[in-house]
Design goal:
Layout: E1 8-13, E2 18-21, E3 33-40, E4 45-48, H1 50-53, E5 57-65, E6 71-79, E7 81-84, E8 93-98, E9 103-111, E10 118-121
Parallel strand pairs: 1-3, 2-4, 5-9
Antiparallel strand pairs: 3-8, 4-7, 5-6, 7-10, 8-9
Length: 124
């Protein structure tokens, strides 16, 4: 993605491995934003920061299983990757908004059972 993609809705088909790379934070203006919606699963869909995985994602993702028995909220202040794992259900969504210094993340996803199907993490 680039600074010109601000305001777009991106539909991610993760029926095969798919990666979306955000622009380097230094290239986006305050208010830059995208919404990413998962349309299919079967493999892994990844949203990662640009500029060699800069740790500029800050926020949380909420994960809930399909029958509502398990709910988990995962927060991170300096992540570089959002992952829709195989099994995350279509319709999972992540909103990303930048203030010009960080990308702020708010995500929601459902899954059949395990609570790790949508993650916000920092690569090792």
């Amino acid at each position: 993605l680039t600074n010109a993609d601000s305001g777009k809705v991106i539909f991610m088909d993760a029926s095969s491995t798919n990666t979306i790379t955000l622009p380097a934070i230094s290239t986006v203006s305050a208010g830059w934003n995208v919404k990413i919606i998962l349309t299919a699963t079967g493999a892994v869909g990844t949203v990662q920061t640009g500029n060699s995985l800069e740790n500029k994602l800050s926020g949380q993702v909420t994960k809930i299983d399909a029958d509502g028995d398990a709910i988990a909220v995962q927060s991170d202040a300096d992540a570089d990757k959002i992952t829709f794992a195989n099994g995350c259900l279509a319709g999972a969504v992540v909103d990303i908004v930048s203030n010009g210094t960080l990308f702020y993340v708010n995500g929601f996803g459902t899954h059949a059972s395990a609570s790790d199907k949508l993650t916000l993490t920092q690569a090792d």
